[in-house]
Amino acid sequence: MALLDLKFFPDQVLRSPTGQVVSFDHELHSFLDNMRETMESENGIGLAAPQVGVLKKIAVIDLSVETLIEPTIESLSSRLPQSHIHDGCLELLNPTIIAGEKKVSSEEGCLSIPDFRDSVMRHVGVTVEAVDRHGYAFRLTASKLLAYCIQHEVDHLNGVLFIDHLSPLKKHFFKKWCKKREIPDEVRLDGTK
Ligand code: CO
Question: Which helix (H) or strand (E) holds 104?
Answer without folding.
Answer: strand 103-110
